[in-house]
Amino acid sequence: MNILVLTPLVPYPPHDGDKLRLYHFLKYLKHRGHQIDLFCVTRVKSDFQYASHLMELCRNVHLEYLNNWEFFFNLIGGVLMGQSLNVSSYFSPELRDQLKAYWQTPEGKSIDVVLAHRLRMAPAAFEGNPGKPVVLELTDSLTAYTEQLKDQKSVRLSRRLAARWDHLFLKREEVEWSERAFQSVIISEADAQVLREEELAGDKITVIPNGVEMARTSNFKKPDLYLEKRPVVCFVGNMGYAPNEDGALWFLSEVWPLVKREVPKAVFAAVGGQPREVLMKFHNGDDVLVTGWVPEIEPYVKNAGVTVAPLRIASGMQNKVALSLSLGVPVVATSAAVFWMSPKGREGVLQADGEDLFAAQVVEALKKPRHAKVLALKGKRFILKNYRWNESGKKLEQVLKQAAKQRNV
Q1: Which of 125, 223, 266, 350 qualifies as a cystine partner to 361, CB 3.0-4.6 A?
Q2: What's the rounded Cα separation, in Å, for the pair 138 and 400?
Q3: CATH number for the domain harbouring residue 197
Q4: pLDDT, tens digit, for every residue of 188-230?
Q5: Residue 72 in contact with residue 51, Cβ under 8 Å?
Q6: How many structural domains does the chain have?
């Protein structure tokens, strides 16, 4: 198949959720012999340095930079036109013109199916499309995400107001764009249920979870930041992402003092890119470490005594939980952070809500590491059995083939 992929990010390096997911899909499709033309819109200029890595997976790669002024005017346009900010904010006239020209090229005419990654790419997938079938890779439900975000008082006001606005429109937009697509792909059954409740037909939804990398579940060198004989509590993710930032701040303010009272030598490490000053101010180089971006997150997870997922806002699959379990590291998580897992899968997680219970589970894992490890190994068996990138890639390939076949019938 010849596949056109549209995405609002550059899927490299494959660290956080969206980049990780799309990168592994591209990698699988390339391995299966499919030709991929990739069009990316990014707000990060430094992402252009990764184009060469993507050329290893794709026939053609086109990158468009969306500057702050364009983003700002797109937000205003979204308000005036009655659209969600999530969708309107990523409009790119340059991308529109590139696609218009692309459809007239031999490569464009040869396309069998379009894969639109994230809802914000849906308009670009359909505008000017000369009849090519579209598969909409939603990943997770933005309706569910904004429902939680809009009422979370700990989140800054501007984010809550934007979430309130978006929630009004996303309930409609997710369903309308999904109805136009051949199929919508979603990351978890919980997110699929949200779409069904919004009256999207069940046969229009395919659940494809993320996977874990089997080859990388071995030993990793201990990070220099981790001091000897001091137990580490690790939280990984994009720390600039609202749910992660909220979770880290709640943990540091409400949970961490309770943990330190019982385990004075404990160290907390918030590992991942783009932390804002509100989180960075907790970094002291001793018992609280806020690292920012790191080349690899696995060493920080593997060498921790326990990882945490203190999320009060969550949708989709939480890769931080799956990664930790795949490495056999105990996880303490809120119910929101493991909502995507089956009841059997949750048996391998130390689940707790509220600062007292959450702190107690962290302390228990640090003081009784053998017991926590046994539980984590149970979770590891579940994750490695049920979440494999090859299986996820195979499911996506089947959906894309069905879309292409329907067009040719």
Answers
A1: 350
A2: 14
A3: 3.40.50.2000
A4: 999 999 999 999 998 999 999 999 876 555 578 889 889 888 9
A5: no
A6: 2
Report CA 110 to chain centroid distance, whole Å. 31
Nearest to 337 by CA among 307, 314, 365, 361: 314
The answer to whether 176 touches 157, Cβ cutoff 8 Å, is: no
Q: Quick one: 102 and 48 in the same domain?
A: yes
Residues of the domain holding 269: 214-386
- Tell me the longest C-alpha to C-alpha distance in the chain: 67
- 294/193 same-domain check: no
What pTM does this model have?
Answer: 0.91
Compute CA 213 distance to the chain's CA centroid, rounded to the nearest angstrom: 16
Same domain, 293 and 326: yes
What pLDDT does 396 receive? Answer: 98
Q: Are residues 271 and 377 in the same domain?
A: yes
- The CA distance from 138 to 372, in Å, is 35
Residue with the two structure tokens 């907790």: 282
Strand ranges inside 195-238, DSSP E: 205-207, 232-236
Return the residue matching tokens 């252009």. Answer: 48
What confidence tier does 26 reach under pLDDT thresholds 50, 70, 90? Answer: very high
Chain segment 60-108, per-residue pLDDT in tens: 999 999 999 999 999 999 999 999 999 999 999 999 999 999 999 999 9
Rounded to whole angstroms, the Cα distance separating 269 from 355 reads: 18
Partner residues linked to 135 by β-bridges? 115, 183
| Domain shared by 19 and 100, yes or no | yes
